[in-house]
Write a structure and sequence with these properties.
Blueprint (H helix, E strand, L loop, with lengths): L4 E4 L11 E4 L10 E9 L14 E4 L2 E5 L5 E4 L8 E2 L4 H13 L2
Antiparallel strand pairs: 1-2, 1-7, 2-3, 3-5, 3-6, 4-5
Amino acid sequence: MAQFDVYVNPSARQREVVPYIVDVQSGLLDQLPTRWIMPLVTDRYNTGGLPRRLCPSVLIGGVVLFAWPHQTAPMLAKSLGRAVASLRTEAATLLDALDAVTSGI
């Protein structure tokens, strides 16, 4: 598992809203049984009033999704399966979105 790897949402019930999740946890914590994940939601469910910095758009498999850093949560690493993509190139944007949640700036 690598930071910024993208996985299909293991929750079939939530997949219509959150088709993918991205691992935002530092690789320094790989020994933990959990990973800190950020939901990637479809345009249909993204609230238009949220600031772009808070909910940046990303492209996964030709589909535009929106990161929801305000909904990050731990998830058991063994439930993630195999990575289907990487958002390593979007690392600065995703970390900035997390910073917007924690610092409000």
